[in-house]
Amino acid sequence: MCARKYYSTRKGLTDGTSIDLEMLRRLFVAVYRTFSTKQYFDEAFGTTCTDTGYTPGTAGQDIETFVLRKLRKKNMYPINSEGYSEDDIFDWIELMYDLISKPKDGQYHAWNDCGWHYQNYDKPAGQAEFREEINGILADYGSGYELSPFGEVRRLPEAGLDKLLAAPLPVVIKTSDHDRVLAAIELFRQRNTTNHDRRNAVRMLADVLEPLRNQLSKVITEKDEKDLFLIANAFGIRHNRDDQKTQYDPVWLSWMFYHYLTTIHVVTRRLKNLHKNP
What we know:
- The chain has helices spanning 7-10, 21-37, 42-45, 63-71, 86-99, 123-138, 162-166, 175-189, 195-209, 213-216, 222-234, 251-276, and strands at residues 47-49, 53-55, 102-109, 115-122, 145-147, 153-155.
- With 278 residues, the chain is mostly helical.
- Strands 1-2 form a two-stranded antiparallel ribbon.
- Helix 2 (21-37) packs parallel to helix 5 and helix 2 (21-37) runs antiparallel to helix 6 (123-138).
- The longest helix is centred in the last third of the chain and has 26 residues, at 251-276.
């Protein structure tokens, strides 16, 4: 579910439509405190009772060392956004996704207004709520990011291409090729992806089309088929020859990636229809 945008933001009348690193730090801590106040981190970080004192959670008694072990970074706990880099915040968001859980089946401890103590927690419910809340912020940060259902911060797809990335592939391709397409998408969308990574993602998609080459003439023209592989071969994607073009604007990598991904969907669907109606 997309975060609701209110009138001035929808109309572009505010300065807050885009989030910079300083604002990301503030909003990230605000989200953490909101869920912490609702006790969504009790299962991981433990609880304190006026009768029994502190009871550690799944992270153990030394939370600072637990975070160090998980993130391999010092000075990350207690949570304080002032010195966090972009990567620090993204690391924390992913770790919080792993740790968060919605409390359920609790009892209220009235003595000294101690508060609620819970025996059971619902991790998927907590993760879903956290993901929805944090994605409303990440979408407006920088070029746009999201926390995936797998708990990884990744780049948002270009406008209008989200449905293409999420569309399932027909079963006319092998399972290994299907997995290769999914791996290419994940590689292309990683938050710290390099041009080398993106080039590899394009190559992976071109390699999926290669085994279908003998069947392409059934669904596209011979010229289109030659042009498909000319793109990958001439622009230093699949081979390493002296006559290949390698010095070009990285924007062409995005164009090639979506071009190949679209082609895979079109070709496989047409081949599927041919198999149905030989």
